[in-house]
Amino acid sequence: MPELGIPEQYLAGYAPLLAEVAGTGRRLTRAELEARRALGEQAAEAGHGLRSLVNAHLAATRAAWPQTPGAADCTLAAVQQVVDAFAEGYERAQRLAVRQEEAARREFIDDLLYGRSDLGRLAERAERFGLRLSHSHAVAVVQGPTAYDESAPVPRQVERAMISRFGDRNILLTTKAGRMLCVAPGDQDDILAHFAKQSYAAAEGTRAAIGRPQPGAGGIVQSYEEALNTLELAERLNLEGPLLRAADLLVYPVLTRDRQAMADLVLDALGPLTRARGGARPLLDTLSTYFDSGCVAAESARRLSLSVRALTYRLERIHQLTGADPADPGQRYTLQTAVIGARLLDWPDKEL
C-alpha cells in the first residue's frame, strides 16, 4: 500500500487469507494468528505507526472484499482476528522496547553516579539521555517521607512539572536508593531550585540538598556525593529548612576531616558535662540551642520550654564544669565547635 507508506511485507498473505475464510467460513488457526503477531512486532521494530498499519489493513480489506453472498460475517470476523493479533504483536514489541530502554537508562544512571564506566563510552551514552559531560553539572537529591521509585506518583508529578517548565533543557530526572535526583547544567541553578520546590509541593516533609557544580563525568559523581553528605549532615545536626546547599556547609566536612582531633576536642571541652546530674545530654542540648538561637537567652529559654532564670542556671553550671563561659565571646568559639563535633560524632550516645 504505497499510498499509506506501509511496505507490502506487513500485509503478506492477507488478501488470500480473507478469500479463503470467505469461501470456507473457518476461523484463523493458531499458526496464522502467530504469524500476524510476528508481522506486528516487525512493523513496530521498523518504526511504523499503528494507526497507519491498521488503515493499511482496512484498505486491503476493501480491495479484497469477497463478492460471495453471505460471506460478510466470516470476513469481518477474520479481519477482527487479524487486526487484533497484529496489534498484539505490535504492542508486545513496544513493551519490550520500553523495558530495554528502561534497563539501558538504569544501567547508565548507575554507571554515571558510581563512575564505573569508560569515560568515552559514558559520554556517548550521556548524549542519548540529554547530558553533555563536557560541561559542568550539579546534582540535587531529594529525601522524602517515603522511599521513591520512578513509578511512584510523587516522582511522576515532579517530572511533569519540570518538563512543563523547562522542557528538555539537558535535564536528567531519576530515582536512586529511594530518593529523587535531578542532574542539571551547573550554570542553571534555577532548575535545581525549582526541582526542590516542586518536590516539597508534591509531598510535605521532603528535604533537598544541592551539590556544587563540577566539570565532567567525575564531577557529577562528586556533586551527587556532596548532596548525599549534605542530607546526612542535616539529619545529624538537626539543620532546619527544606533546601540545603553543600556550598553553604563546607565547614562541617573540614571539621570532621580529622576525626581523632575532633574527638579530642569534644572530650576535652565537653567531657566534664558527664559529671552533671542526669549526664551530659541536658546541658549539651542547652548549649546547642543557645548557639542556634544566636546566644539570645530569651529565645533559647523559649525553645527549651524553660524560664530565663533556669536557662541562666544551666549556663552557669556549664561554666563551672567546663571552665568555659558560653556567654564570653573569647571562649564561645571553642565550646560551639565542640558542640558541632559532638553532633557529628553522636556524642555522648556513642563513646569516643
In short:
The chain has helices spanning 14-24, 30-45, 50-63, 72-114, 119-128, 153-166, 189-202, 216-237, 251-256, 259-270, 281-292, 297-304, 308-322, 329-345, and strands at residues 136-143, 172-176, 179-185, 207-210, 214-215, 243-245.
**Portion of residues in helices?**
55-70%
Question: If helices are DSSP runs of H or I spanning 4 or more residues, what is the number of helices?
Answer: 14
Give the DSSP E fraction (strand runs of 2 or more residues): 5-15%
| Series of secondary-structure elements, N-terminal to C-terminal | HHHHHEHEEHEEHEHHHHHH
Stretches where pLDDT falls below 50 for ≥5 residues? Answer: none
Termini separation: 80 Å
Tell me the structural class. Answer: alpha+beta
Mean pLDDT, to the nearest integer, reads: 87
Global morphology: elongated
Give Rg in angstroms. 33 Å
**Oligomeric grouping of the chains:** single chain
Number of strands: 6
**In this structure, how is the largest beta sheet organized?**
6 strands, mixed
Polypeptide structure, described:
Helices cover 61% and strands 8% of the residues. The chain contains 14 helices and 6 strands. Helix 2 (30-45) packs across helix 4, helix 10 packs across helix 14 (329-345) and helix 11 (281-292) packs across helix 12 (297-304). The protein is elongated, with a radius of gyration of 33 Å. Strands 1, 2, 3, 4, 5 and 6 form a 6-stranded mixed sheet that branches. The chain has helices spanning 14-24, 30-45, 50-63, 72-114, 119-128, 153-166, 189-202, 216-237, 251-256, 259-270, 281-292, 297-304, 308-322, 329-345, and strands at residues 136-143, 172-176, 179-185, 207-210, 214-215, 243-245. The mean pLDDT is 87. The protein is an alpha+beta fold and 352 residues long.
